[in-house]
Each structure stands twice: as C-alpha cells, then as structure tokens.
Amino acid sequence: QVQLKESGPGLVQPSQTLSLTCTVSGFSLTSNSVHWVRQPPGKGLEWMGGIWGDGSTDYNSALKSRLSISRDTSKSQVFLKMNSLQTDDTAIYFCTRTTRFDYWGQGVMVTVSS
Amino acid sequence: DIQMTQSPSFLSASVGDRVTINCKASQNINRYLNWYQQKLGEAPKLLIYNANSLQTGIPSRFSGSGSGTDFTLTISSLQPEDVATYFCLQHNSWPTFGSGTKLEIK
User: Fold this and answer.
1) Between B34, B43, B100, which is nearest A107 by CB?
2) CA atoms of A46 and A40, how far apart (whole Å)
3) Is the pLDDT assigned to residue B41 strictly greater than 90?
C-alpha cells in the first residue's frame, strides 16, 4: 500500500540548514509527484514545493530562495533542504503524494531554537 | 497566488445535524478543489477531490459541491468521530489551502 514517512532532526539552530527525508513505498517516484507541506503549531498549512515524476521541481515563491527539493529514485526517497532557518520555520513538515495530496506521511516536528 | 477564504472558522453542531463548510477562491479554479479532515495529532486525510468526487473509503455522509469560485463540504449526518479540523485545498495553480474549520460536537 502507499506509504510516506518523513525523517529528520527535531531541533535546528537558527541560521542553520534543515534537511528532511521522505521515504515512500507502494508507488513510483518516476510516475508520481511528491510535495512538501508544513504546518506551524496551531496554524494552517503551506505548500512548500514539489518534485515531479520527470524530476523537475516547483517551489512556493515565498520560499524559493531558501529551498531545494531532490530525490533518489533507487532508494525511493525525496529530500528537502532549506537554509537560513528562523524561529518562524518551526512547524510540522509533511510529505504528500501527487497534486491531489491523496496520501500523507505522519509528519515530523521541527523546532528552530538555540 | 490564489487565496482561499474558508468559513466558518469554528463550528459546533449536534450528532445527526447537517453541517456545511464553505471555501471561496479569489479567482476561478474550475473544479480543482479538495477537502481534507485532520484529527488532532494526525496527518490530513483526503475526503473529496475535484470538488465532488468521494475518495475511496470515505463514508457517503461526506459530499462536496461547487465550481468556479464557491465550494461546499457537507456532512449529511454528523457523527462523533467527525470531530476534526477541515480544510480545503485548491490545485488549479500553485496549491493553496483554506485556513481551516474546527468542528466540535455540542
């Protein structure tokens, strides 16, 4: 069955780089897009960006200068890297499948704090 | 970016009630509108896609309607397990979400 699972550090210092991994199963990364969405505590959801089946990427214009999404199809993994983190980047980070956002990982809480 | 205005932000209703939640897009999004349910501490769950298509495994008391700029999620008979936050997503262009509706039982 389709599954996605996020992993990464729970705590990142301000100005540092966040690196997250989304490991997927039950579907092919070359046929389906994967997207990153985040949710600050008690707030709404924000699409960050995604990587398409052909490997091309799109980013939220508000984050584009700091964000990079890539993948390793042999490992069924999608990666998020975001630099220059600030406290307002504290959020739950989710990966989700396709533009329908039909399946989601359980999310990983990332706190930006010194 | 397309803005999604969702209402109400909070809703309290009794078991068995008919409940409606609305989303309004700042421009025409055709039928590229999904509805999700998010329970506390869980990932969002897709309920309705493309405005009115029920996702597999979702109870038939959930339905969606609308096109263009105005959309509605309806729960025909509210159940205790429906306590959650509901939000809409437009995917006509770069995805944007509604701000959410927190639903509780009276």
Assistant:
1) B43
2) 9
3) no
Interface contact B94-A35, CB threshold 8 A: no
Report d(CA B90, CA A99) in Å as an integer: 10
Q: What is the pLDDT of residues A6-43, one digit of tens each?
A: 999 999 999 999 999 999 999 999 999 999 999 999 88
Token reading at B50: 């493309």
The Cα–Cα gap between B23 and B48 comes to 13
For residue B76, which amino acid is it? S
Q: Exposed, middle or buried by CB within 10 Å (0-12, 13-18, 19+), for A80?
A: buried
**R_g of chain A, CA atoms, integer Å:** 13
**Residue-averaged pLDDT of chain A:** 96
Q: CB–CB of A102 and B55 under 8 A?
A: yes
Q: Which of A101, A103, A109 to mutate to test the interface with B (most CBs of B within 10 A)?
A: A101
Set of chain B residues whose Cβ sits within 8 Å of the Cβ of A94: 43-44
End-to-end CA distance of chain B: 36
| Interchain pair A101, B95: CB under 8 A | yes
Q: Which amino acid is at B73?
A: L
